[in-house]
Amino acid sequence: MEIGIVGLPNxxxxxxFNALTGSAVAASNFPxxxxxxxxxIVPVRDPRLYKLGEIFKSQKIxxxxxxxxxxxxxxxxxxxxxxxxxxxLSHIREVDAIAQVIRCFKDPDVVDxxxxxxxxxxxxxxxxxxxxxxxxQAQRIREKYAxxxxxxxxxxxxxxxxxxxxxxxxxxxxxxRRQNLPAATQKAYQFLSGKPLLYVANVGENELAxxxxxxxxxxxxxKDGAEVVVLSAKIEAEIAQLPEAERKDFLDSLGxxxxxxxxxxxxxxxxxxxxxxxTSGPDESRAWGIEEGTTAPxxxxxxxxxxxxxxxxxxxxxYEDIVAYGSxxxxxxxxxxxxxxxxxxxxxxxxxxxx
Length: 355
Known about the structure:
Helices cover 43% and strands 19% of the residues. It contains 14 helices and 12 strands.
């Protein structure tokens, strides 16, 4: 899973990315601090994985990961090359989903490039730039195939027809996600306005429960079908610096059960319809993220291509059962271990050995 972090300058993107990855990305009070798309793999903190590690006394615990790409602050006119626009819009096309960080705090020491720190204004600026970039791309590709389409070439005519629908929508201000475009069209052209979207409300350090601005953003997200996560990038940066053993006490002191970053990762998983299966034993317990609907051979391929190629069957039991009975021997005695073939669709919580 790869999520691109976007937003206007000075909204806390790089601070958030630092907290996510522990990377030393510059985070300063001026636009365009981030001048290359920084990438980091963030582990998914899953209590189930650590419980399996305890049961099997695993020497190694390997969580699933989410890939985050931090992209330089976009500004009005980015689709026309303003700021560092076009260069970074191209990086967004490669991600699976977009997380837009929205400034929901007021700080006179941090310049607000919009001039009003209004969350919906910021959303609309970015949404417009993504849509205009999609329009330019669709028009450019259409032009490429227009001649062949006029000459009657079937494939070219189909491409032009599909792009005409999208272009008409873009000209009306309708993002790709609301146009009901065929999945094949979105997959082929990776329209920015068609990617799954979540909003990250970056609030002040004393506003973790939210504030009027984040509340307005939550209402907007509900209408737009977007996940909304409220957090304080500064607090998340503090949590990231703490040893693992001290994080729970710090979260308790803030009245939080989990960090904002953990909620962000989970929101990303939900947004992309991901689930988790596990492999576990004395050597290693590992979590694997897959899309809902993945078959057993495809899941095996996540581990190694040879396992998919030579798949025979899968030995499976549920996480709940191993926790309830404590050992594979007990599961075998109770008939709770089963063998599944090539058509088996993986389920969240499956603990599996591929044969």
